[in-house]
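Study this protein:
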Amino acid sequence: MLAAVLRETGAPLSLEQVELDEPGPGEVRVRIEAAGVCHSDLHYVTGDLPAKLPLVVGHEGAGVVEALGPRTTGRVSVGDRVALQWRPRCGECPACVAGNPVLCRFGRVLASSNGLMDGTSRLHAGDETLHHLMGVSCFAERVVVSETSVLAVPDEVPLEIAAISACAVITGVGAVLNAVEHAAGRPLLVIGAGGVGLAAVMGAVLVGADPVVVVDVDPAKLELATAVGASAVLDARDGDVVERVLDLTDGVGVPWAIDAVGSPDTMRQGVSALAPEGTLVAVGLSRTDATVAVPINELVQRQKRVVGSLYGSSNPRIDLPRIFRLYASGKLPLERLVGARRPLTEVNEAFADLRQGGVGRTVLVP
């Protein structure tokens, strides 16, 4: 099958014919129909985030189940349309039992081994082992994944919508639904209008936040943010962001800010724009050694908080079906998030678009 292989960080991906083993116990094989191009993939390509090479990239995907391995539970059947989840779910560790499966202990197994849940790979190029990204590796025509990494998609949801919902949407919308509280009628700031940031805007509109203020450096992205419900948009190149947020909120600041960029500068802006007792929810990733300096007295005297939100602080088996229902009912216009559609053979062009700030989520169609 054809797959996009990262052999050297900073270099273009290699389009190669590779072998995919049959699914093992508790695993399924999925034919990929759509795969979103995410900044997290780019972090691995550039080396900002470490991984074992060679690596088949891609973690935001959806497709059709083609085969079941032994000892699967019957949650899905051959022919089912499914979305792929890049966090495993063992169901037995303290995080899973407590209802926080995005922190499942097997997440560390996937990250440290770049394999599946047993730490081994199903991908090969001749005698050479290829590694998996986040237990998914969907920049390929097919994948073998854990049965816990797939979720059935209703017929009324296009698979490209299911693909982006399983990462960008659940991260952005989920951060609002799960990490933000009592937002109705109160200001909410979103920093960054990429796929995750725009999803957060939709989530903020859904819960009734007002005004919803969006910051970015790209006028086209800000225009799209307005189209999906932002009340006010700020070009970060045109003056002090914090001062303008304060002007929009009568000098008070916002009770909630979501940083969808993951840079020290944007996080510092988010903290400074908070009202007393306000909370910054950090959802964007950066280099593994990146840090942000926050004034201690500002945290203490104004009782501000900074919290992290992985995968939208979600329980995907509950939240992803909820997102699908909201999309089907017209309450989440997720089709607006889809930008260019490219064949898998144009994956390097898709990353070039991402680097240049392309608007909307590029979807690869193997």
